[in-house]
Amino acid sequence: MKDLVNRIKRHLLDTLGITVTLSKPTNQGSLPFFLQDIYDVFQINLLNEKFIVLALKNDSELTPATIHKHIDIVRQQLKMKAVFVHSTISSFNRKRLIEHKVPFVIPGNQMYLPDLGIDLREYFTKKRSKPVSLGPSTQAVILYALTQTISEPLTPTQLAEALGYSRMTMTRSLDEIESLGLAEVSVTGRKRLVYFDKNCRNLWEKAFPHLRSPVKENVWLKALIDELPVCQAGLTALAYYSMLTPPKRQVYAAFAKDWKAIQRKYPHEIISYPDEAAYELEVWSYSPGLCANGKIVDPFSLYLSLRDSKDERVEFAMEEMMEGIEW
């Protein structure tokens, strides 16, 4: 811990040009014992603002939702703003902390202090381009790798058979995957093979910046259409994967191709005003049934479809869902 404290001081000196002192807060004893077991707690004066520093004692990685709760407890108990500190953090969890507006410092890597208007990274002087978004078929391949047990390399033909795309489309998808370094692609004889990382968490974190919401549009319906293949989605699906209360209006998802084929036959079922609808239909860029859990969309696609939500209940339920995944 002494090493981490020194690294915090050095990081602040190198990035902000200030010298700080970390001391034990006088009212630390008012914190719950479980927090004192997890963190080394310090007080710091930073740019004329007092903060409590929560430095994680071990190398384990807490979820962003859990850290957010701990920060709130400190604010309530000690009446001070708090900063989470750890020696390392995954890019995925770092993004989620920022979305939760949780202040944190990763010495030598990043410092995010929204109350002070600070977001500095070790590479902040470099011009950063926007991550390339994967095409729908390529995203479907990544989700297939995340949700299926794949022990052997796959060919474009095998992927085409599994996902319902053409071999040529899957060949282009492998080009995208290879160009972004999301998997190893090689040629053996006349076969092109893709080797996915067996550690699905690694694959998810590498692919995450390039993945996008599958939802193209939302449609409001009087009733579900029997001819339309659908899966439970949105908050309806999230309620299945978490303790979230199911929404009053059920949410389903359908493939854009399927919806386009039949929507003109049922104009009387489509409603312009959501308040009058019995169902919400999400029209997806790829089939929600490809990697579905029965009739419920897969958790990865669901997370992507809801990741822009600003509802705290939904955010916590999403974290609960991701914690429940057996990587």
> How many structural domains in the coordinates?
3
Low-pLDDT regions: 123-128
The third-level CATH topology of the largest domain is Trna Endonuclease, Chain: A, domain 1
Strand/helix succession: HEHEEHEHEEEHHHEEHEEHEHEEHH
Question: What is the CATH architecture term of the largest domain?
Answer: 3-Layer(aba) Sandwich
Shape: globular
Structure write-up:
The structure is a single chain. Strand 2 (about 40-45) and strand 3 form a beta hairpin. The radius of gyration is 23 Å and the shape is globular. The longest helix has 15 residues, at about 1-15. It has three domains: about 1-120, Trna Endonuclease, Chain: A, domain 1, CATH 3.40.1350; about 135-210, Arc Repressor Mutant, subunit A (Orthogonal Bundle); about 215-325, no CATH class. The two termini are about 30 Å apart. It has about 325 residues and is of the alpha+beta class. Residues about 125-130 have low confidence and may be disordered. It contains twelve helices and 14 strands. Helix 3 crosses helix 4 (about 90-100), helix 6 packs across helix 7 and helix 11 (about 300-305) runs antiparallel to helix 12. Strands 1-2-3-4-5-6-7 form a seven-stranded mixed β-sheet, with helices on both faces. It has a five-stranded mixed β-sheet with strand order 11-12-14-10-13. Strands 8-9 form a two-stranded antiparallel ribbon. It has helices at about 1-15, 35-40, 65-80, 90-100, 135-145, 155-165, 165-180, 200-205, 235-240, 255-260, 300-305, 310-325; strands at about 20-25, 40-45, 50-55, 80-85, 105, 110-115, 120, 185-190, 190-195, 215-220, 230, 250-255, 270, 280-285.
